[in-house]
Design a protein that fits this description.
This protein is α+β, with helices and mostly antiparallel strands and 281 residues long. 39% of the residues lie in helices and 13% in strands. Residues 2-6 have low confidence and may be disordered.
Length: 281
């Protein structure tokens, strides 16, 4: 397991200069506004990448003001359409906080059962994502962990689990608790016959590692279809993971995706607003 990191591990080995710092906020209100802005962007990134499957899939972020609550997408709204004011705030008892939520307050019960259990068990997790992406779903049917066959797969070396107790739709607390237990302290899980799950300390890291995990599943499926891939030794895989698999590395690697979206959409977070007016064109 990689050690928690707030800075890029061995940064002098991979970059010249000082890596950027995570954002700082003037208030919890501003932090909430930024996280909602980022979460809505995350859904639109997932939509653009085709990670939607009807109304399935969800991403959550822990609320910085009411830390026993999390923000989630309204059930039935396409990922590509979600904006910050669409998000709904849910407490640990599955109660939607109407005063702070968007107009569509329909809650996906499976989303609550999975994410509530993870946020409860893992105080370090601020953002968790699950969707029925194509290659992750295909790989999940094999019921096995990733093999370290590429540099990118090493980010998940000894840092992902396989949940092999598929029990249908996750509509009960017991199933959600089992998934959280299987995830343990790791950042990712392959849910057998279901899909992928990623949980990290930031929206950016979660999105980055989800995309990387999806691509890693795709690469392994292709490689194994062609022959017997050569594995990277565990010692080497661990060294790579300690650089590319940390929360900071995930945040740093994911940040450009959000910046690209801001450039293409012409909308960015207004850092001067202090959380009252979050969009700047």
């Amino acid at each position: 397991m990689p050690a928690p990191a707030t800075d890029m591990a061995h940064s002098s080995d991979v970059a010249v200069g000082t890596p950027p710092a995570l954002p700082k906020f003037t208030s919890k209100v501003q932090e909430r506004a930024f996280l909602k802005f980022r979460l809505a962007q995350a859904f639109r990134i997932f939509g653009k990448l085709g990670y939607d499957e009807g109304v399935a899939g969800h991403i959550t972020v822990r609320d910085p003001i009411r830390t026993d609550c999390f923000w989630v997408n309204p059930f039935g709204k396409h990922f590509s359409m979600i904006q910050p004011n669409d998000l709904i705030l849910v407490d640990k008892h599955s109660q939607v906080q109407a005063a702070e939520s968007g107009p569509n307050r329909l809650l996906n019960k499976a989303a609550f059962m999975i994410h509530a259990a993870i946020h409860e068990a893992r105080p370090d997790v601020h953002c968790a994502a699950h969707s029925h992406s194509v290659y992750g779903r295909a790989f999940s049917t094999l019921g096995k962990p990733l093999t370290m066959i590429t540099q990118d797969s090493c980010a998940f070396y000894d840092d992902h689990a396989v949940y092999n107790q598929y029990g249908g739709l996750v509509l009960g607390e017991e199933e959600g608790a089992k998934i959280a237990e299987t995830l343990g302290p790791r950042k990712a899980a392959i849910l057998q016959n279901h899909g992928l799950l990623v949980a990290t300390g930031s929206v950016e890291a979660t999105v980055h590692f989800f995309i990387t995990l999806e691509k890693t599943c795709q690469v392994q499926l292709l490689a194994e279809a062609a022959g017997k891939p050569l594995e990277i030794p565990g010692e080497d895989a661990a060294k790579v993971r300690d650089v590319t698999g940390t929360n900071y590395a995930g945040w740093f690697s994911g940040k450009p995706l959000f910046e690209l979206m801001e450039q293409r959409e012409g909308v960015s977070f207004d850092w001067d607003s202090r959380g009252t007016d979050t969009l700047k064109k």
